[in-house]
Amino acid sequence: MKKYECAVDINLPLEKVVALFNDPANFQYWQNGFVSYQTINGTPRTLGAISKILFVNGKNTIELTETIQAMNLPTQMTALYEHAHGSNTMTNTFMELPGNKTRYIAEIGNAKGYGLLPKLMIVFMFGAYKKHNQKWLNQFKKFAEGSPSAPSFISPI
What we know:
Layout: E1 4-10, H1 14-21, E2 34-41, E3 50-57, E4 60-72, E5 76-83, E6 86-97, E7 101-113, H2 116-124, H3 126-144
Antiparallel strand pairs: 1-7, 2-3, 3-4, 4-5, 5-6, 6-7
């Protein structure tokens, strides 16, 4: 699968965007189906840390293993995500923009399917994967900017 990227501009300074992004307690507010994030090896959200992320999608439970491959926040973080049927890497990049704004870019690549059906899904569902990731970036923007769908106690300062 070729790489793809999604991006969104957020009306907040870089430091605030990165703080909201890097706190797993906030995942529930912008990642549909998020249930839990548990570090199983290393210091949470640091280079080399391994964590289990649990999602529920209808009747299906999806467990991902996240391995932090590069942690250079506030500008970039790369992680490997693995699950029973495949894996991919995701690089999250944050760029300061004029006017106290931040561009959040997510680049997804190196997707591998384990078995024929997952491999075919990667090839034929490429557009759906990109659309799904863009949706999460848009939801993160809405959450970070303190829209009515974000909890009031997390509104930006």
